[in-house]
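Researcher: Quick one. two chains, 821 residues in total.
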Amino acid sequence: MSALHAVTADQPALPGAPVPRDPRLLMQPARLAALQPSRLSASRALMVRAIRERWSIELIGWDIDAKSKGTALYRITTPGGIFDFPVYSFEYRSEGRTGRIIGRTWDMMGALLEGPATPDEITQTGRELPKLYRGRATPRTLVWCRANRSSRAFDHTVDALANRRQPELAELAQVGYLMRNTGLDGNGTFGTRSFRALEPDHVLAPPLAAQMLCAYMMRVFAIDLVHHLARCANPAAIELDVRLQRFVGVGNGSALGLVLFVNNHPHLVDRWLGAREEAIAAAKSICGAAVVPALHRLQDLVGRAIVFRAEDRMEYEAFAPSDEIAEELRGVRDAIAMLLADPESLRNAAYPIAAMCDQIEPRLHAESFETLMSLTIELVPGVADKLGANLAVDEEFTTDPAMRVKDLRAILRDEYAWAFALDLTAPAAQRFVWYKSENAEEPRRGPLDEVEWAFNLGLDLPRLIQDLDAALDAFASEASVARFLLAAPRFRAVVARIQTLAGRLYHSPHMNMMGDDFIPVQIVRMMNVGLHGIDKTRDFLGRNLRGILFHGAPTPADLLAGADPDWFYPAEPVL
Amino acid sequence: MSAATSHRTDEMLISVREARLTLDRIFLAAGVPDGIIPSVREHALISAALGLGGWTMVRDQHREIGDSARRHISLVAASQAATAGNASAATIDGGGQHAWIAGATILDLAIDAAQSSGDATVAAHNVLCVDELAVLAALGSRHGVVATATALAHEPGAATVAVSLARVSRASHERDPVLHAALHRGLPVGAALWWELHHLSNRALSPDTVESRRHAGPIIVTADGRVIGRPVDDETDVSLLRQAAH
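Model:
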């Protein structure tokens, strides 16, 4: 497969070579919602590294009773450092239980500490963590997390194992997880360490890597806990079949907060989408003798995706049914096979993979096409991993006060044409307000007339762009931005944003998040599926998603022994 | 910082992220316009990092700062001859704005004026808490300039801000050394004061009502008790959505 590595991100594109896609297409919310997990998704990138470096995950302490109450301690050893993951487990109770952040009941809480953690750190974490908003993390803490059981799948699994049989696959597959993440707080929250202060070569320096490691540890703990509870019920209980251990992931519910995250992290969104597009372009650029092995590899990967989609038992409200995606992917596999069977086409096209993608795209649902795009990234693993290692960004905004008004307007015209194209005058275009409740600071979105008292936290970017342009129009074109902001200080924040992000392609979805026609879950899905790498994301009420992280991922034993890098898109195990 | 340390010394170390979030909310609730909140927050952040008015000023004067944002800063005079370092390129009437409101405008004007000669000085009058303009030294470095603010002893509320364009590109920790240090070491604050600020910042959050709970989540419980959305399963205590707020 070495030929696949021939293209690197450092090589300049040749004339006619595939290039990153036009933001006018990619930044449409509907398109962003169609993006699929890839090697550049945070959970998958973490596994790439854990597999390559054979991370060791050991259970070094377990003091949990038959009612689930107690503590455990895990140690993660990587070539770049040791991390400890103390777990505080609680007795199950149904009151106050919800997937929303306003929930008051958790089955486990955990913390990821740069280790080895001292006994004092463990004790202090155990004291502070349950306080959550009033608690303070120890200085070497990277993340605090909490999770709840899927009662149905969890109890069913414990019962089955205690009765010396494996749980029903249908029951597990319908849910997909034993425990579900209900909160990951790091990067300075509650006194955790700021990720920007991590050393550049820190194992968990890539964005979201620390949170993803915590989520993975939730799965590790959930499996250990079902084993423990089954043994408590019956000392002769069996363990969950290792194929099921791989199959179950970690549940994840996400919602409106991710839209605000996108508002506040345009540098990261741009860097990640840019990296993804660069990797795709590199894959499409494979040429010469490398094409045939690349197509065979792509064919295999598409085959995995077909099975995965065909076996998907989830029902989606607004997104494409998986059986339709599976059917379209069969067409993609056929197109690859036809190309492989046509040496003349392979010879004549400068970039056969790109030509094939262009040819089949019009026939495909966006999700099918984006599945193909994500899979092409696997053709250039070296390129992708190099890009993925450079996703950490400086996210500060600064004005350029010496810029001339005419130059600022030119940026607006060049880079924000989408915002000018929106009609913002209709009442429906400004119907909503985004706010946070005093209860757990839950992000909410409601009609203005229902919450007139709320402070808006949403970024009304297109309106700001239009208003700014109108204000600039009344100003001398040769005047400086400094003079403009003297006269119109209310535009300071948006001017700093525009100037800082000038020249970047993928920082802001082309959306009016205040309007009636904006569907929040589209942006939530971009983050959950595309960036986090979550599978089978069910959508609810156009604003919530629930899906599965690390679906099919190696177990700790697999990691140590050398796991299969192609763990994603798992087929249902046949026991 | 550790909580244990906190309890012993009554001093906490707050992360930059926590500080920004808290400051944003306090200023939002104090009526500072959206468009300048990030700027005002960065002035306050640097002030806290440098041990100036900082946290105490936020607690004691956030309302005045919000009020002062409604006043107008204006250019009194722009000198055509101000190409040499010592002459004032511009004179500003702060209009009674707090230094954290006026600072960014003054700095911008000084940087703009320095473009031709490499140096410029802006004179500012009628600025509240004018000593706080000292934060411009740190904020100026984000623009790659050396900025110095000097309060005028003979005139309350007046200062000069001198800017010299830096000629070399610098590493990020040099571009923003105060922020860099705060990111790595945190920002010290008395624990009691911090929780006061935290409480103040919560004013920007909205009351939790049964109605507003319908504005988030995979399930809506309507006024007549119907459940809309995600099929109810064993992971949700629906009564939580029906209860009156505590």
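Residues 74 and 93 of chain B are 5 Å apart (CA to CA).
Researcher: Thanks, that's what I needed.
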